[in-house]
Design brief:
Blueprint lengths: L6 H12 L3 H14 L7 H19 L20 E5 L6 H8 L17 E7 L2 E7 L10 H9 L2 E7 L4 H14 L2 E3 L13 E3 L1 E6 L7 H11 L5 E3 L8 H11 L2 E6 L12 E4 L4 H8 L1 H6 L2 E6 L2 E7 L10 E5 L1
Parallel strand pairs: 1-3, 1-4, 4-7, 5-6, 7-8, 9-13
Antiparallel strand pairs: 2-3, 9-10, 11-12, 11-13
Helix pairs in contact: 1-2, 2-3
């Protein structure tokens, strides 16, 4: 244990030893973790505290009497896409999720604030997409269930701090993912063929690019990556480039919006049917109602690849923005 710790640390340690409940112990350990200096000599101590906190939080979530434990990392999908927000500690993941969604994750300047995932819904042109704030990726301790959550996701938002060695953060994060058999989709062609590897699309976000004065740093970082990564600079504090971010997420999920129309009426553009690219008229009808799917005779389509009101059959491939009038 380092000898140059302030009195506050020893006070928190004393309270920890006297604490009775898991919540009291967690609070004391988190306080100790925030006080202890961060350098190579304390890495193993900090990792041990993080392990203790994680175990206490897991134990406190398990109900008494041997009831079934429901993992905090088992998050039900909502909407057409599930996106995990990953990265090292203190890069602004929670602040991004807080700013982009209806979720309220704990946001603080101290490291290791997030210990469990927090889902929220982000609106993109009347489409709700799920974002999940996650604990920091850490070499010393990584929840196995976090790895499972990443593997199940449709897209990774890899958040870096533009102002604190983003190249090192990116390298370390990718190494951790690869060690757990998760490979960014853009690296698939250059990686060795292995069994049981999950390839997940990734968008790299350089956060804390708060204004134009930091654009040069962004450009230098982009050039270092040599166009190998899809990269976008954003600011969780100012909302800079959020519109571009929302559209990039939607595009990366390979989604299309299709609108329904009743005969002789105007289409309803407020509630699109969201499908995967390449979806057919038959799949659209199935989403609307099973009767339409079973009894469908034909449809009329208005869109970019169909003349107005073109008659189409079940195997017609729909495009983003198409308006469809089903006939049974």
């Amino acid at each position: 244990m380092p000898t140059n710790l302030p009195p506050d640390f020893y006070e928190a340690e004393k309270r920890y030893r006297l604490a009775k409940s898991p919540a009291e112990k967690i609070a004391c350990l988190e306080e100790m973790l925030s006080i202890i200096p961060k350098h190579k000599g304390t890495d193993h101590i900090r990792a041990d505290y993080r392990r203790q906190i994680s175990k206490l939080k897991t134990a406190s979530r398990t109900q008494k009497g041997g009831s079934i434990h429901v993992s905090a990392f088992r998050i039900d999908r909502e909407g057409p896409g599930q996106v995990v927000v990953l990265g090292p500690t203190n890069v602004g993941k929670s602040a991004l999720v807080d700013a982009l969604t209806n979720a309220t994750p704990e946001v603080a300047p101290t490291p290791y604030t997030t210990w469990r995932p927090t889902p929220g819904m982000m609106l993109v042109d009347n489409v709700q997409i799920q974002l999940i704030d996650t604990p920091p990726l850490d070499r010393e301790y990584l929840e196995p269930e976090l790895i499972d959550l990443i593997r199940r996701s449709d897209l990774i938002l890899l958040v870096l701090d533009l102002q604190t060695h983003p190249d090192q953060q990116l390298e370390t994060t990718i190494e951790i993912l690869k060690q757990n058999r998760i490979v960014p989709l853009n690296l698939k062609d250059s990686s060795e063929e292995e069994q049981y590897v999950w390839y997940v699309p990734v968008i790299v976000l350089t956060n804390k690019c708060d204004d134009e004065s930091l654009d040069e740093i962004c450009e230098i970082f982009r050039e270092l990556l040599e166009d190998e990564w899809p990269i976008l600079s954003v600011s969780a504090s100012t909302g800079r480039n959020f519109d571009q971010l929302r559209q990039s997420i939607f595009d990366s999920l390979d989604l299309i919006r299709v609108y329904s129309k009743a005969p002789d009426e105007e289409p309803d553009f407020s509630e699109p049917v969201v499908l995967k690219e390449g979806a057919t008229l038959e799949e659209f009808a199935k989403e609307i109602h099973k009767d339409f799917h079973e009894k469908l005779k034909f449809a009329r389509v208005w869109g970019s690849t169909a003349f107005d009101g073109q008659m189409v059959q079940r195997d017609y491939i729909l495009q983003d923005g198409d308006v469809v009038e089903l006939r049974i």
